[in-house]
């Protein structure tokens, strides 16, 4: 956002909100790069002017507050300055020292915070700052701060990745016609949107039937975006060694399988540099809690689930989804023998239907994108 843009919104926001907005915008620069850490930006202000700024670029690198402090060439300017940060400064020794201590030692006398840190291991910075005589204000643009770190919040509070349902379908909800044919349902513009989703999340996940029927690469094919980790749910290790997915970046492929699946095939896949992740099962399905934990252990913080029908059904039935991006093509066919987007038993009462909130729609080429959060 340009300086002119900030001036334009100055008259509808107070100064604390204005500079917090800047901190949030800085934090967004590292989207999908800080996992398992949160997105954090920091702005240092003195006499109404920004004198320093920074953001957390990657796990293990300096935090936003330290980046901002180090960006100020004349350290004398830090005395009596204000720092704006969208998340409570950390208060523990992890990969880096506590940011609360860095702020105290810098001479900064006021700290404005968007939201408290929900990570009990890292929290406590507010109390430490106050104990050092620093003026602390909490809750400025709190809703925006929480929205920014919705992935981190889900990872921390519920010990699971932020799961996103993504599906491209016909108007009647079919993701593939008879025989499983699904390419291509939506337009090229919609497919580019899907690739951007892959490039801005930790991983993309599909079930084994999608690999067998569609033989996808699951890569992001837009320059400038990171390649997502590629996850395949394959309980019985049916994946063909000749599958296209193995032709690129095998070390970022994660095959989720049962402990009882073919050990010889596991050895072959590991020799190909593929990650084999054994997961607990129950009633013929992966245990949802163990699946979530195993994905987090592999630093998969946000995960785009692209299907197919049974996989979406599994995630819906177990209430694992957080958000949905549903793409509808302006096409319709008969549905007998086709594959519906949600492959699980229909309820007898519409009151049992899964509800979405904060919904919105927009056109992408000839297609319609429906976006919403699971209630």
Automatic annotation (TrEMBL):
> Which GO molecular-function terms appear in the entry?
5-amino-6-(5-phosphoribosylamino)uracil reductase activity; diaminohydroxyphosphoribosylaminopyrimidine deaminase activity; NADP binding; zinc ion binding
Write out the entry's keywords from A to Z.
Hydrolase, Metal-binding, Multifunctional enzyme, NADP, Oxidoreductase, Riboflavin biosynthesis, Zinc
Instruction: Report domain CMP/dCMP-type deaminase positions.
Output: 14-137
Annotated positions binding Zn(2+) = 63, 90, 99
Keyword Ribonucleoprotein attributed:
no
Residues the entry annotates as binding substrate: 182, 198, 218, 306
Q: Which residues form the active site?
A: 65 (proton donor)
What NCBIfam families does the entry give?
A: eubact_ribD (TIGR00326), ribD_Cterm (TIGR00227)
Spell out the protein name for this chain.
Answer: Riboflavin biosynthesis protein RibD
Q: Which organism is it from?
A: Hippea maritima (strain ATCC 700847 / DSM 10411 / MH2)
């Amino acid at each position: 956002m340009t300086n002119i843009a900030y001036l334009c919104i100055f008259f509808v926001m107070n100064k604390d909100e204005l500079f917090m907005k800047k901190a949030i915008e800085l934090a967004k620069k590292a989207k999908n790069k800080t996992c398992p850490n949160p997105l954090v930006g920091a702005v240092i202000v003195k006499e109404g002017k920004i004198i320093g700024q920074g953001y957390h670029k990657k796990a293990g690198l300096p935090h936003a507050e330290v980046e901002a402090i180090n960006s100020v060439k004349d350290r004398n300017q830090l005395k009596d300055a204000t720092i704006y940060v969208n998340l409570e400064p950390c208060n523990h020794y992890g990969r880096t020292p506590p940011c609360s201590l860095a702020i105290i030692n810098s001479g900064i006398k006021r700290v404005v915070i968007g939201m408290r840190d929900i990570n009990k291991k890292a929290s406590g910075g507010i109390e430490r700052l106050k104990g050092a005589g620093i003026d602390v204000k909490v809750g400025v643009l709190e809703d925006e701060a929480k929205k920014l770190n919705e992935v981190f919040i889900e990872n921390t509070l519920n010990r699971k990745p932020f799961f996103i349902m993504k599906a491209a379908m016909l108007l009647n909800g079919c993701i593939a016609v008879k025989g499983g044919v699904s390419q291509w349902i939506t337009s090229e513009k919609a497919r580019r949107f899907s690739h951007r989703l892959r490039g801005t999340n930790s991983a993309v996940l599909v079930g084994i039937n999608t690999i067998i029927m569609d033989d996808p690469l699951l890569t992001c094919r837009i320059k400038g975006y990171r390649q997502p980790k590629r996850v395949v749910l394959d309980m019985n290790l049916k994946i063909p060694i000749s599958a296209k997915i193995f032709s690129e970046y095998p070390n970022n492929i994660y095959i989720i399988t049962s402990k009882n699946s073919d050990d010889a095939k596991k050895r072959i896949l590991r020799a190909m540099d593929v990650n084999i992740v054994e997961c607990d099962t129950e009633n013929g399905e992966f245990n949802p809690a163990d699946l979530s934990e195993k994905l987090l252990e592999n630093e998969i913080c946000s995960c785009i689930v692209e299907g197919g029908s049974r996989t979406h059904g599994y995630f819906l039935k177990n209430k694992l989804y957080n958000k949905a991006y549903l793409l509808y093509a302006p096409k319709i066919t008969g549905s007998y023998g086709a594959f519906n987007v949600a492959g699980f038993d229909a309820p007898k009462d519409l009151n049992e239907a899964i509800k979405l909130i904060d919904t919105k729609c927009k056109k992408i080429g000839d297609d319609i994108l429906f976006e919403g959060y699971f209630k």
